[in-house]
Amino acid sequence: MEQQIYKGKLIKFHRLKIAKKEELTKNTFCLEFEIPAEIKSHFKFKAGQFVSIKFKAKGEEIINDYSMTSAPYENKIALGIKVNSPDGATSELYKNYEVGDELLVSEPSGRFTLVSKPSEFRTIIAFAGGIGITPVLSHIKDLLHNEHRTRIFLFYGNKSSEDVIYREALDNLARKCGDRLQIFYFYSQEKTSDQFFYGRLDEKKLALIINQILHLDDTDEESTIWDAVDEVLICGKGDMIKTLANACYHHGIPKKNIHFELFEEYNNDIYPIEKEFPLIENVEVEFKMFGKEYQTVLPDNKDKVLQQLLIQKFPVPYSCKSGICGSCECYLEEGEVELLENEYLTEKEEHQGKILACMSIAKSKKIKLNFDLT
């Protein structure tokens, strides 16, 4: 995952020295950092999480998020990073920093995580597109290391075979754990000898995968592998996530078991809004952010709160606008909203009065929010 975002919450950074830098493909590279003993406790993390890096690019201070490819048991912070354009900030990061240089690195965060269940027999399905393999690789290593009864099926899409990131690492894991890890590569712009593996990962491809790869289950003759799926991991571009998440749901996977992570801004809902709301016009909104008080009036409640505040040019923190990243997390101090499905907040946090502005529809004439969580 890579995205430059407006940080709406206090994030702690530490100076870390680059221990390794390596080119992976023509437009991707990896960074590893040394973690001094005195701050190791600050860099404990879960598989699937990310760190933010603060650095200078073209005279400006940039904060980008990058997912870790390392697993917690490896005791290191390793990142996979894509250079999207020669003129972009990440290109500056690649060109201007070498082994031995220091960068400001945040403490790990993110909720693209799974609850560990080492005593259970589990089936995990993962879909990744391009650089979206980074947090998925962290998950795969962690699951293979800690859950010896878990099997994993990875479906990894790229434009071509030369664009595949971490191919050697993935194939090595598959060789070592062939009975528990199977990997299938798909190419959207390179013809393959088997037509099955040509094309994008989408709802049509998923149906074929279920029928042709996940159909027979050696561990249970009365069901298919797809019937046994416990959790689904998806990381890639927004359209890919939306397509596959909905397809998995329509093929019987509960939404709570479908986990996804974006690596770019995405402004659409992952799941369609199935509810209708009574129209409320001239909604009064008061909110607090960085100690400042703001007031405004929304024309109506036809759109979500965050999107309407952004239209009015308020500097509200956000990244994905899809209920995934949590950047717009806030407290609802007064009024009522309908919080739509999201991948971020826990039930406990919702009971505490937390909402995501990007997934909230106003249901009262006035609402009061507080973005200052710390």
Summarize the structure in short.
The chain has helices at residues 89-96, 133-146, 167-176, 203-212, 238-250, 305-311, 347-351, and strands spanning 2-4, 13-25, 28-34, 50-57, 60-67, 77-82, 102-106, 123-129, 151-158, 181-187, 231-236, 258-262, 281-289, 292-300, 329-334, 337-339, 354-356, 360-362, 366-370. The protein has 374 residues and is of the alpha/beta class.
Mean pLDDT: 92
Q: How is the largest sheet built, in terms of strand order?
A: 1-5-4-7-2-3-6
Q: What proportion of the residues form beta strands (DSSP E)?
A: 25-35%
Distance between the termini: 25 Å
Helix/strand-derived class?
Answer: alpha/beta
Order of helix and strand elements from N to C terminus? EEEEEEHEEHEHEHEHEEEHEEHEEE
Query: How many beta strands in the DSSP annotation?
Result: 19
Number of continuous helical runs? 7
Nearest-angstrom radius of gyration? 21 Å
Q: The biggest beta sheet, please?
A: 7 strands, antiparallel
The percent range for helix content is: 10-25%
Poorly predicted ranges (pLDDT <50, ≥5 residues)? Answer: 1-7
Choose one word for the global shape.
Answer: globular
